[in-house]
TrEMBL record:
<keyword id="KW-0472">Membrane</keyword>
<keyword id="KW-0328">Glycosyltransferase</keyword>
<feature type="transmembrane region" description="Helical">
    <location>
        <begin position="86"/>
        <end position="106"/>
    </location>
</feature>
<dbReference type="InterPro" id="IPR038731">
    <property type="entry name" value="RgtA/B/C-like"/>
</dbReference>
<feature type="transmembrane region" description="Helical">
    <location>
        <begin position="112"/>
        <end position="131"/>
    </location>
</feature>
<feature type="transmembrane region" description="Helical">
    <location>
        <begin position="166"/>
        <end position="199"/>
    </location>
</feature>
<protein>
    <recommendedName>
        <fullName>Glycosyltransferase RgtA/B/C/D-like domain-containing protein</fullName>
    </recommendedName>
</protein>
<feature type="transmembrane region" description="Helical">
    <location>
        <begin position="6"/>
        <end position="26"/>
    </location>
</feature>
<dbReference type="GO" id="GO:0009103">
    <property type="term" value="P:lipopolysaccharide biosynthetic process"/>
</dbReference>
<dbReference type="GO" id="GO:0016763">
    <property type="term" value="F:pentosyltransferase activity"/>
</dbReference>
<keyword id="KW-0808">Transferase</keyword>
<keyword id="KW-0812">Transmembrane</keyword>
<dbReference type="InterPro" id="IPR050297">
    <property type="entry name" value="LipidA_mod_glycosyltrf_83"/>
</dbReference>
<feature type="domain" description="Glycosyltransferase RgtA/B/C/D-like">
    <location>
        <begin position="66"/>
        <end position="225"/>
    </location>
</feature>
<feature type="transmembrane region" description="Helical">
    <location>
        <begin position="321"/>
        <end position="341"/>
    </location>
</feature>
<feature type="transmembrane region" description="Helical">
    <location>
        <begin position="297"/>
        <end position="315"/>
    </location>
</feature>
<dbReference type="GO" id="GO:0005886">
    <property type="term" value="C:plasma membrane"/>
</dbReference>
Amino acid sequence: MTSERIIIAVLFAWTLLAVFSHLGDVQLEFYDEARRGVSALEMSRGEAPSLLTPPYYGAPDHWGTKPPLLVWCQAIWMKIIGPGELAVRMPSALATIALFWLLTWWGKRDWGSPLVGSLAAVAVLGNWLYISNHGARSGDFDAMLILFLTAQVVFFYRWVTNGESRWIWLAGLSVFLAGMTKGVAGGFLLPGIGVWLLLDPEGRKKLLKPGTWLIPGGAIALVLCYYFLREQVDPGYLQMVFDNELGGRFDETNEGHKHPFYYYLQLLVSDFGWRHLLPLLIPALVYLFLSEYRRVTLLLTITTVLFLVVVSGAATKLVWYHAPALPLLGMLIGAGMFHLGKLLSEKIGGQKGTFIGIALMTSLFMAPMILTTHHVLNRNRYPVMHESKSSLKDFMSRPEVKPPYSVVIKDYQPNFRFYVELARGRGEAVELKRIQRLRPFLSAEVQPVSEFEPGERVVICHGETWEYLFDRFQLKPKYKDGRCQLVLLGERR
């Protein structure tokens, strides 16, 4: 086995550690991840009104307007390994592993070495934000989206430079899968690819061929077919998509996520892992543009810059919106550092040169690898959401907390609902009760305020629910751990 293969094997083993270590240990995140988990749980139980509509409370989900590919995958994994955090996060984890091999394969085909792609994948996982929420280990859309977006770049490039029709078909398939994962976001890299096609001599020739337009255009048409089919079973869906994905988030600031234009550049520079890698981008670009890899380097540079300009121009900015740029930037860093290290080793010569070249590459990527390893092995030390939203799972597992009881929420608590549904699925006498109506825009159905009776055992984790019940009942605490406590409702006040 050559030294490159040994390094790739080590990096892949580390990738498995980074992606799967304690993957199912931490409670689902409060917002998107938990809502996807509830939708997948309902769909796996056959409670969806249609396969086209991810459900929430058995009705079409009118908050998450994205196509259902992710939820389908999560529901399938629930059928295979049972409902839980692992099934919710498995599609993202497997997409990340697939991204490792896609980049490694591309490195072998077009960058001079498979190690280039493996280093790029390590760079992606070295991003502190990406290994945290809405990334490689999270039950959200983004890991699958990034796999399919990166595949678009890879296969379009292979089609232009290789000429074989299979690559344009694979590019079209990637466009379709990206669209079925996250809708409009599935086309975020296409403008950059299109500009590169115009600038590249062979690309301009390809633009005159029908396949350039028919196959990707057909993929987009298939995604649009989903939207129109869902409108038939869920009237008003297209308007919600327009309000949420096309007009709302781009033109208006949603939920207070307003940041300056340079926000995503700031995130890249300040990221715990990428503050060690991003400075390498400048020497990498200088070398690559002066080398035989200038053509593919131009593709990644144009695509990355245009993508970041587009998402930076949106009024709503969230910390994971820049993540599709990570594999492209990682590929540039990996390629630049690999070839500079190779150049150095050749200048020195012999085993000494090989050793110094390997040591250089290892040292440059070691810091983000160590930080990521510490992050995933100590996941409870780095919670993404506020503590007040993250304590129910562990509390329900305490031996002192035995059914029957009701978990009380204020209104929208999808992570609490997920764990109540898991308990009910195990046959436990656990209910979910609300102290106010569930807001209509969360679901097609309005959930009413719950009724409580003296003698009922309830779990309370928030001050608002405690105050609501304290005003109505004598409360007798039975067990407390962290922010949650088991309480017996006494006489009415």
